[in-house]
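Notes to self after the Tuesday call (sharing in case useful).
The group wants a holo model before anyone commits to mutagenesis around the pocket. I volunteered. Ligand is MTE. Logging inputs and output together so the record is complete.
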Amino acid sequence: MLIKKVPGIPSSEITPKHAYLRRREFIAASAAVVAAAGFGSLAGDTEAQGGGLAKLPNVRKSRFSTTETPNSYGDISSYNNFYEFGTGKEDPKPNSRNFRPRPWTLAIDGEVAKPASYDLDDFLEPLALEERIYRLRCVEAWSMVIPWVGVPLADVIKRAAPTGKARFVEFTTLHDPARMPYQRTNVLDWPYVEGLRLDEAMHPLAILAVGLYGEVLPNQNGAPVRLVVPWKYGFKSIKSIVRMRFVEQQPVNTWQRMQANEYGFYANVNPTVDHPRWSQAREQRLPGFFKNHPTQMFNGYGDQVASLYTGMDLRKNY
Ligand SMILES: Nc1nc2c(c(=O)[nH]1)N[C@H]1C(S)=C(S)[C@@H](COP(=O)(O)O)O[C@H]1N2
Ligand SMILES: [Mo]
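Result:
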């Protein structure tokens, strides 16, 4: 592949070959650089990009957005973790092409005054859509800036009216091996499950995302509805959600069930607690090539979220 020097990106960032990156990751990274060059000025212009999917109407900007420049639509939609469609990061895009995310039913039940099963579009109807530009930090130490469109999770929770017993929210991904091909394998214990403590879920930064770059979500990013919790590692951002259940006991999330010594319940971005197989001190900010950017505590949201964890040992509660 021909790699042109991109103005504004130091040549060190596009130098091929670096020991710790596998070849396919290098190809993805350099493809992203070329794609970015093709767009000329990314310059934070979220209107200019998209995937030709349905536009979401009446999206307002949010004061909670980062001012960092978003990654290109191409970056965000071609480098994904979505094991239901394959374990490689380039797999979900081609393997989810035929997935139909509508009609979609979302169940909200458990310890709530108003359990209900909604058609997703009816469910969204009374909620105001916001663009939330957040950096998503994967546990595997790469990150991207993504212009999500979504609704505050707190609004959804208030509507469900949790009872006094509700202490956690458990989220579940669709389980349909006919539509999600890797659910016919046992690479994970299906369906994918995640959980938040109720106060984390009520935090104004937590959203249910239904769009990207002003359009409905592409399948590979978790269509039609996924969680985004910007101070936590990406695996907390469960995709293609069909159920939110309010519970008393702390849920066991999928990665914790698979490898509890590597993935905990909290999964707060924390540069001082390494993953057993790699350091979390630095991150690779895609499309940058090197893992050379210091990781920030709570992914930079410490002022807003640290108080949720007062008195907790974040080494134990990783
Ligand atoms: N159902 C489901 N949700 C999932 C995953 C998955 O494999 N299955 N991967 C997670 C991980 S590890 C990350 S980093 C984010 C990636 O989101 P993105 O592809 O939109 O960047 O999705 C998360 N949500
Ligand atoms: Mo991740």
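Two things stood out.
The chain has a mean pLDDT of 89.
The first helix runs from residue 23 to 38.
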